[in-house]
Structure formats: C-alpha cells, structure tokens
Amino acid sequence: MRVLVVGGTGFLGHHVVARLRERGHRPSLLARSPRPGTDLVLGDAQRLTEDEWAELLTGHQGVVFAAGADDRTVPRRPAEPYFHQANVEPVRRMLAAARRVGVEHAVLHGSYFTALHRLRPELCLAEHHPYVRSRLAQAAEARLAAGPELPVAVLEIPFVFGSAPGRRPLWAPAAPWLGSRLPLLAPPGGTAVVTARSVAELTVAALEQGLGTDLPVADANLTWDQLLTAFATAAGRSGPVRVHRLAPGLLGAALRAAGLTHRLRGLEGGLDPRQLAPLLCSRLFLEPGSHGDLPAALRETVAASRR
C-alpha cells in the first residue's frame, strides 16, 4: 500500500514511516522542512488547497495525518481560530481530496482528551479548552469530508515516550531535574502513557484493517508519582526515589498565575490554565490495549534529552 504520511519527519511520523516500511508498504512523506537523507515532498499542510491535496494524494491508497498543533501551544488571543486552522481545516481539505482521488484508508493522530471527553463528562473538557474543541471538530469534520466510503480512524494519544532523530523530547527540560538530587514534586492524579513504537504499530494496523473508529491508545496508566519515579530511575538518579506530594491548591495558584501572564501578553493557551489543576489532579486513565516497552522508551527519552 502506498501511504502519504503528513508530518512524516516529526516525532510520531518518523516511527510511522519506519513501521510502514517494516510491513512492506511504500510511505511518501509531506513536511514543511527538509531532512537530510529523507525523500519527501515539501509543503505546509495548513496552506494546501483541496486541489493541491488531490494532486499529492493521487496514486496513494492510504493517508496518515501526524501533524497539527498540540495542547502546549499558546497562540495570540483568541486561541479558537488558531487551533481550528491548524487542526481542523487541513484535515477537512485533505480528506475531501482523498475521497475524490480514491484513497481507501485514513488515520488521524488525535488526543486522548477526546476519549476523556466521552469517558469523563464531568471534567467539561470541551467547555473549558479550545484545544479539545479543535480535536473534537477535527474528527467530526474529517468523517464528514471523507464520507462513508473512506473510513477514518482517530488514534486518541496520551503522553508519548521514545525518541526520533533530530527531535528534542517534550520532557527534555525536566531531564536534569529528574536525574539530580533535587526534590521531586507531583500532584495527585495520573495519566495514560504510550510509547512511540506502539502508536506506530497501531497506526499501521488501523490502515491495514480499514478501521473507521475512535481508538484510545495506551500502554499503561501511571500516577504522576509513579511516572516521575520511573523517569528519575531512567535518568540515573542514585538511591531510592521519593516523590513528595504537591498540594492541589499550590498547583492551582501557580497555573492561575501562568494564565494571568498569558492574558497580560495577549495570549491564550489551548488548555485553560485556570481549569488545569482539577484536570491534573484527576486520574486521566484509559484502558491499556498495547504492550510497548515503557522503561526502554523512558531511557530513550532521557538519552535524547541530553543530546
């Protein structure tokens, strides 16, 4: 199967391309910047018209969208149009074009916040956070554009660990702290986690099986103190690892201060800092469905952070 991977030089895109090749498929890559030793088409997914997408997708049987803006992005106020332009519009145009030229399978890399939106309605995620609204709209608009003849699988992805060439991990700024003797602090609650390898395997499996459903993905559920302990161990912290409890009130005050700073600068985050403390103090867990080597992925993340 010939598959176009949008964001194919990114962190997850790199692993998807490798897995496609392992399975005997022929990946094509679309990215905004060149990468040495990589055969790709240069282009900005946010700027491509439907006709340009159709030209790119002609001759492909599958497409993977591993691009867009994530929840760490803090654009100018209001954030809603920014996330819509980054996460919804490119996918709508891409899948309308894919349907036109006969693409048979599609996978989107989404966020586990959309799964939590279904599973934990009391968190009011769509009400509070423009990023979450963009991911919900992305899935809805994608399936509307694709129509019934083009199944669209949406992988709902939590925190991902692992490494990719030339990519600095999300956790890189914390690596020195985690490996030092400084105190470790964590709030109550926790998160689902997954390895990049597992995401890639599930992406290719969804393509091969022609799945068209929402697919929450997780290798494990960890409390924040369990995650920091595992990370500190991978970072080489000597002696027993002890994590101290961070009071929810203190966390909330710090996040509200960050939100005030954003507002004073004319910015707005994809996740509203005023609503983050209750979220981070919750157990944001999913049903594990894959079996990635999380300790190895954590060691990779630490090693990549130090390069």
TrEMBL record:
GO CC term, one of those recorded: cytoplasm
Coiled coil regions, renumbered to chain: none
Cross-referenced InterPro entries: Epimerase_deHydtase (IPR001509), NAD(P)-bd_dom_sf (IPR036291), NAD(P)-dependent_oxidoreduct (IPR051783)
GO terms, molecular function: aldehyde dehydrogenase (NAD+) activity
Pfam families: Epimerase
Annotated ranges, domain NAD-dependent epimerase/dehydratase: 3-162
PANTHER family to which the protein is assigned, alphabetical: NAD(P)-BINDING DOMAIN-CONTAINING PROTEIN-RELATED (PTHR48079:SF6), PROTEIN YEEZ (PTHR48079)
Protein name listed in UniProt: Nucleoside-diphosphate sugar epimerase
